[in-house]
Structure formats: structure tokens, C-alpha cells
Specification:
The complex is a heterodimer of chains A (about 160) and B (about 350). By secondary structure, chain A is an alpha+beta fold. Chain A has helices at about 5-25, 60, 105-110, 135-140, and strands at about 45-50, 70-75, 85-100, 115-120, 135. In chain A, the strands form two sheets. In chain A, strands 2-3-5 form a three-stranded antiparallel beta sheet. Classes of the chains: A alpha+beta (about 160), B mainly alpha (about 350). Chains A and B meet through helix 1 of A and helix 2 and helix 13 of B.
Chain lengths: ~160, ~350
């Protein structure tokens, strides 16, 4: 087969793409009408499982742009066993993530030792006012419903990773 | 009663003029709108595997009106140090050259604005007026990017004006006339090697000239392989940088209307213009043509224009940009010698046969 000059080949590529778009439709979708499902592990929004949080402040300290705000106080809880001493537990008063600052690095999710933070692929939470991007702990808790089940580990994966 | 008698006898002068103005507006704006929607919006999108505008009207067909509405609302900004009068004048000069260009294009046996003996000469001369508009747009903007873009545009348009003129000379030699109407007649009344079924469209006999002409047109329109003057990645938008609102709109219309009109001229010169080969209906001269060609003729010319613009835009959407020195080298070292050789060969063959 004789060598096709690059100039002609280039024209062929664009023409071929045009015919393909005519026949099979485009690679894009009409967004507000049609929505693409984001990948399972997409970093859309961070959800908070409040019960797991001990307000240990690890996420706050590891956040590169300081967009997590935690306030808490210590409370006395009844002992676990009869006759034991009363326990001190941390109560969470405030857990806010400012998505106007967040850069979606996910360090907070990785660093959390108690599995209180999760990635959710949800992405439609833009706001007309920038202050509304500060999600409080109720709103972060609501995102928990959108967190997908963790996918199966691949064969041979290190299961000792995060406990 | 044909169109010419309507225009010359039955109507008073003001009505004739009004008709001509309306006809000119349609002949410039309709191709511009079609080209923008069909090619800039849709074909480019499809070649990039996307759909383009879809919301305004069915398949986004009203998008252009939405865009025009948007531009008309915008503030008319001019830079503080700009030469105001000239700054405002520049887009009008560019658009005016398009309107002057469409005057000589024949749309049918009688459907033409003016039957001008030196039509080719006039068209090529008038098309250079837009350079003036672009140059003063770049200069009056008081902006170094605009000035660079304007100077590049001037250098490029002057360089590519030459091969364009020289490519057309081949057609003029072969047709023996500079009247665009006569060139159409010559192409369709003629026969090719005794076979008259196709007439004699000069795209076949003047193929080299056609290619040179199309490349020069591409450069005249500053479409992509030759879009150094408005190179958006280095000059923002060249001579159009400082223009906003309806002045930008005028530049925009001018660009695509000129694409349409140049394609019409290319169809007239090389593809047989408004006519079908005369032998199909047993015509021999321009006077024997049936009157319905005045209605069908513009449609045929429009179809041919669309095909020519398709190729211009196809190349535009496929190729990367020339560097400034490559661009000049290509014009002076390749296109001009080729078109000169084309003239020589045409002249020799014309005398020989």
C-alpha cells in the first residue's frame, strides 16, 4: 500500500470523526438532560459518618488548605462494664468542610483512623453564594447516603492496609 | 417578463435601488449565517465528536440569533488611547469590502447586480480593501497585539493576493473575458474534448489554478492554516482584540460573509457558477436560457458555494497553523512560481488550440 501523505491523513481523521458522530452519536452527553454516572471512586464530595468521629483532629491538621473545622468537648459517659470507672468521650459540636477551599486531595479521608470520612461521587452541589459551600455536619452526614459500597479488593491486594 | 426588465423598466429608480440593497443584504448575510451555523457550529463540533449548540431552537438552529442578540446588548468599549474615529470605522471598511465584492457575482442569467466587463479585475481589487480595514483596526487599537496582528494580516494578505490574481489569470485566458457572467457562459456552453455533457468547468482544465486559488482564498480569509494574524494562543485575537459588542459582530459577519462570497467567486470561476451545462436543456447562448434559471440559478450557486466552503472549513478544522516565515515562504516560493507556470502553460495551449 502506498504511503498516504500526512496532510491527507489528517483530513481523513476529521472526516472520519464527523461521519462517526453522524452515525453513532457524539462522545459527549447533553449534560443537564443526560447525566453520566461518575466512576465508583470519583472524588465528588466528602461524607461524614458522625458516629465514627472521635474529633481527634488528624484530618484538620493534615488538611493542606485548612478547610476542615472541628469543635468538640469532653463528656463523661457511663462505664462499659458494671463497676467500672466512668469514661471520658469526645463529643463533636461542629464538623465543617469548606468546599470553597477544599482541593479534593483526599488526605483527610486517608488519614482518618476511624473510618469517619468517605468519598462520594456526587458532584452537583454548586451554590450561588460562596458561603453556602461550607457544609456543616448535618449536610456532610446526608452525603453518607450517596457513598457507594467499597468495591471488592483486587486479587493479591494488601488487605492489611487500612484497618 | 424577465428579471432584468423588471429591474430596468417597470420600477422607478428608488425601487430598483431598494431591491438591489435588499438583494445585496440577502446575498451577503444568508451565506454568512449558513456558513456559521452549518460549518462553524455543527461541522466543527461533529469533527470533534460533540454536538455543538443544541438548546436554541431545533438542533441549535437559532443559536446564531441568540449570539447576535448577545453581542448587540454588549457595551461598545474602545481603549482610552485608541484613535476613536478610525477605530470605529475599521470594521465597517472590512464589511464594506464584502458588500462591494458581491456586486459582481452573477446569480442567474438576469439575476445580477451589475454586468461588469472587468468583473474579475474589480473583484480582486475590491477584496484587497479589507486589508486596509484590518490594518487600521490593528493600528487604531493602541495595543501591541492588535498592531502585530494587523501587520501580520497585511503582510499575509498582500503575499497571497498575488497567487490569487495569477491563478485567476489562467481562467481569464481560457475564457477570453474578464466578465464573470461571460466566464459562466463560457464554461457551460463549451465542450470538453468534443464531449459537452459536462460543459467545460475550469476546475478540470485549470486544476492547478483552482488549487492555488483555494489556498490563496484560505489565506485571504485568515482561516486556520493561515491564521497567523489572529493567532489566539499568542496574539489574543490579533487585530480584533480590542473590539467588543457589535463592532466585533461586524468583524465576525465580515469574516464569514467573505468566506461565502469568495466561495461564490470560486464557484463562478471554476465550477460553472449558477448554470448547469447548457447542453442539458438545449440552450446555446445566454439569451436562449429559460427564465426559471433566475430562480434555480441562485440555488445552484448557493449549493456550489456550500461545497466550496465545506472544503475551506474542512481544511481549517484539520490543520495546525503555519509559522509566519513558513507562511511567507509558501506564498512567494511555491504558490507564485506555480501560478506563473500555470499562466504560461495555459497561454501556450490557448494559442496552440
Amino acid at each position: 500500500m502506498p504511503k498516504v501523505p500526512g496532510l491527507v491523513k489528517g483530513l481523513g481523521v476529521t472526516f472520519g470523526t464527523m461521519m462517526k458522530t453522524f452515525k453513532d452519536g457524539s462522545n459527549t452527553v447533553q449534560y443537564p438532560h443526560v447525566k453520566e454516572t461518575p466512576p465508583l471512586r470519583a472524588r465528588g464530595v466528602i461524607a461524614l459518618h458522625e458516629g465514627n468521629c472521635t474529633s481527634c483532629m488528624l484530618c484538620v491538621r493534615s488538611c493542606p488548605d485548612w478547610c476542615i473545622y472541628i469543635e468538640g468537648h469532653k463528656e463523661m459517659a457511663p462505664p462499659r462494664r458494671a463497676g467500672g470507672a466512668a469514661r471520658k468521650v469526645n463529643k463533636l459540636d461542629r464538623f465543617d468542610i469548606d468546599y470553597a477551599l477544599c482541593m479534593y486531595c483526599g488526605i483527610c479521608v486517608d488519614v482518618c483512623p476511624f473510618d469517619a470520612l468517605f468519598w462520594s461521587p456526587e458532584y452537583e452541589y454548586s451554590e450561588p453564594r460562596i458561603a453556602d459551600l461550607l457544609h456543616d455536619k448535618t449536610k456532610l452526614g446526608e452525603w453518607m447516603e450517596t457513598v457507594p459500597e467499597a468495591p471488592e479488593l483486587e486479587v493479591g491486594a494488601d488487605k492489611k492496609g487500612k484497618k | 417578463m424577465n428579471l432584468a426588465s423588471v429591474l430596468s423598466a417597470d420600477l422607478p429608480y428608488w425601487a430598483q435601488s431598494l431591491l438591489r440593497v435588499l438583494g445585496g443584504l440577502v446575498a451577503v448575510l444568508l451565506p454568512a449565517g449558513t456558513v456559521v451555523y452549518l460549518f462553524l457550529f455543527k461541522m466543527m463540533s461533529f469533527m470533534q465528536s460533540r454536538l455543538g449548540p443544541m438548546e436554541a431552537g431545533p438542533q441549535g438552529s437559532m443559536q446564531l440569533f441568540a449570539e447576535v442578540g448577545k453581542w448587540l446588548q454588549k457595551e461598545d468599549i474602545y481603549p482610552a488611547r485608541a484613535d476613536k474615529f478610525i477605530f470605529k470605522l475599521a470594521p465597517l471598511i472590512v464589511l464594506a469590502s464584502t458588500f462591494l465584492l458581491v456586486v459582481v457575482v452573477p446569480f442567474g442569467p438576469d439575476a445580477l447586480f451589475t454586468d461588469f466587463e472587468a468583473g474579475v479585475f474589480y473583484a480582486l481589487a475590491v477584496s484587497s480593501v479589507s486589508v486596509l480595514g484590518i490594518l487600521i483596526a490593528g493600528w487604531a487599537s493602541a495595543n501591541k497585539y492588535s498592531l502585530l496582528g494587523g501587520l501580520r494580516a497585511a503582510g499575509q494578505l498582500i503575499a497571497y493576493e498575488l497567487p490569487m490574481v495569477l491563478a485567476v489569470v489562467g481562467v481569464v485566458i481560457q475564457a477570453g473575458t474578464m466578465n464573470l457572467q461571460q466566464i459562466v457562459v463560457a464554461q457551460n456552453a463549451d465542450s470538453m474534448f468534443g464531449f459537452s455533457g459536462l460543459g467545460n468547468p475550469y476546475v478540470i482544465t485549470q486544476f492547478v489554478g483552482f488549487i492555488v486559488f483555494m489556498i490563496a482564498v484560505q489565506a485571504e480569509l485568515t482561516q486556520t492554516p493561515f491564521d497567523m494574524p489572529i493567532a489566539e494562543s499568542e496574539l489574543v485575537s490579533g487585530y480584533m482584540t480590542e473590539y467588543s459588542g457589535f463592532r466585533f459582530l461586524i468583524f465576525f459577519i465580515g469574516e464569514f460573509a467573505t468566506a461565502g462570497v469568495f466561495s461564490m467567486i470560486a464557484s463562478v470561476l471554476f465550477l460553472g457558477g449558477w448554470s448547469v451545462p447548457f447542453s442539458w436543456f438545449g440552450w446555446t447562448t445566454i439569451d436562449s436560457i429559460d427564465n426559471w434559471m433566475n430562480i434555480v440559478g441562485p440555488l445552484i450557486l448557493f449549493t456550489k458555494m456550500i461545497i466550496v466552503v465545506f472544503f475551506i472549513m474542512w481544511v481549517r478544522f484539520s490543520y495546525p497553523r503555519f509559522r509566519e516565515d513558513q507562511l511567507q515562504k509558501f506564498a512567494w516560493k511555491v504558490l507564485i512560481p506555480v501560478s506563473l507556470a500555470n499562466i504560461m502553460v495555459t497561454a501556450i495551449l490557448k494559442v496552440a488550440f
